[in-house]
Design goal:
Blueprint: E1 3-5, H1 7-17, H2 30-40, E2 43-44, H3 57-63, H4 68-75, E3 82-86, E4 90-94, H5 102-112, H6 118-121, H7 123-136, E5 139-140, H8 141-144, H9 160-171, E6 175-180, E7 183-187, H10 189-192, H11 195-199, H12 204-219, E8 221-222, H13 224-230, H14 235-247, E9 251-256, E10 263-266, E11 278-280, H15 291-298, E12 319-324, E13 327-337, E14 342-350, H16 359-372, E15 378-381, H17 387-394, E16 398-399
Parallel strand pairs: 1-9, 14-15, 15-16
Antiparallel strand pairs: 2-4, 3-4, 5-7, 6-7, 8-10, 9-10, 11-12, 12-13, 13-14
Length: about 400
């Protein structure tokens, strides 16, 4: 019979696997960043910058304040060791893993090049974009856009050039060569990647097996659906290779108290008796990015409200889950008000049954984040059932809701 693991132990296993509850390094340099990125496997990218762009946040949550320029050198330079691909959604992944994604590139090509597709109807635009990169080297879409190519859409106003680049990117016909500002720069693979990587191709079964192996180690423990979501594989694919890894002794079949589906535990995963940590998580942190897992593991129902009209928002525009030890105790909506030089707590909410006093654990987190952002005071807006206590703990008056 599979071993039964308590729900609390499962939470601690998952957080430990993600790098929480480990003493912070005295300094954060390139080595520490690389070790963390190897542990996580991927950093999700998002353009929202109301507080800070998402890919910077998992690092500060685990390692504490660090120099963002160090992470930029690893991810945003033309030949950086991490480049972008559609690994979860848009994410930074190791450049050396290029061959691991050839199967997905082939599937994307098959999906988006069928008769009647945009690609099939715009072959000249696809060739034009590739010729521009071949002639001029790495370029951003804005470098090659022309007014006559702009096609206004209902949301984004995408141009044909941007559409072509995005499709060529998922096909692997172009790669990212860093970013300019926060705009992607594109290049032909041979302009960025060494020949050994260009020729590397991992057979699909080997690629899936490796991605499942990485996902279960990154999660520590999870269902087949949890593991599949990490790199957006089919659940059937994750199940097949988890069972194969279990038969080989690399993972263990377990039951988790309160979980309906069978679970898998990474062999050698740390099972700490307790987790001591306090952090605010990006909405796209691997701990919370799969909402059903988050609710099952933490009893925390989380929906980001960026796309919800302001009058219908419950918690705020960009609320960050507040992790204290092995519980998500609330959510805090942050804004870096650079003009005023303050970190604005737009709202602060306490989860049900979380006792008073938890705000004291969040005070040093907020002060660290303000300093990391180069801001001075912390301003707490009077919105949310945690706001009053948080302002008192920070020794700052509440601000009226604007």
């Amino acid at each position: 019979m599979p071993e039964t693991i308590s729900a609390a132990s499962a939470r601690r296993i998952a957080l430990a696997a993600q790098g929480f509850g480990i003493p912070r390094p005295s300094t954060v340099g390139t080595r520490q960043l690389n070790l963390l990125l190897q542990r996580l496997g991927t950093l999700q990218i998002d353009s929202v910058n109301v507080f800070e762009r998402s890919h910077y946040l998992p690092v500060v949550a685990r390692l504490g304040p660090y120099d963002k320029a160090l992470l930029d050198r690893l991810t945003l330079r033309p030949k950086a060791p991490y480049l972008e691909y559609w690994a979860h959604v848009a994410t930074f992944v190791p450049r050396d893993d290029w061959g691991l994604w050839k199967w997905r590139m082939a599937r994307m090509r098959e999906k988006y090049t069928k008769p009647g597709s945009w690609v099939a109807e715009h072959p000249q635009m696809m060739r034009f974009v590739l010729d521009e990169l071949r002639t001029n080297g790495p370029m951003a879409a804005s470098d090659i856009e022309h007014d006559e190519n702009v096609r206004r859409g209902p949301w984004w106003g995408l141009s044909d050039i941007k559409e072509a680049l995005e499709l060529l990117f998922v096909f692997g016909d172009v790669v990212t060569a860093g970013r300019k500002g926060f705009e992607r720069v594109y290049a032909l693979p041979e302009q960025i990647l060494p020949p050994a990587l260009l020729d590397a191709e991992v057979p699909i079964d080997d690629a899936h097996r490796e991605l499942v192996r990485r996902a279960i180690h990154a999660h520590g423990i999870g269902t087949a659906k949890d593991v599949a979501d990490y790199y957006r594989l089919y659940v059937a694919t994750a199940t097949r290779f988890l069972n194969e890894l279990a038969d080989a002794g690399e993972v263990q079949r377990v039951d988790v108290e309160g979980w309906k589906a069978p679970a898998f535990l990474a062999t050698g995963a740390r099972i700490p008796r307790r987790i001591e940590t306090a952090a605010l998580l990006s909405p796209f942190d691997p701990v919370v990015w799969e909402r059903e897992r988050t609710e099952r593991m933490f009893g925390f129902r989380y929906r980001i409200e960026i796309y919800t009209p302001a009058p219908k928002r419950i918690y705020g525009y960009y609320t960050l889950p507040a992790l204290v030890d092995d519980q998500i105790v609330g959510r805090i909506d942050l804004k870096s008000d650079r003009q005023a030089g303050v970190l604005r707590v737009q709202s602060a909410w306490r989860e049900a049954d979380v006792p008073r006093g938890v705000e004291e654990r969040l005070v040093p987190v907020l002060r660290e984040l303000a300093e990391w952002q180069g801001l001075g005071d912390i301003l707490v807006v009077d919105r949310g059932d945690l706001a009053h206590n948080l302002a008192a703990a920070l020794h700052t008056p509440l601000s009226m809701v604007e």
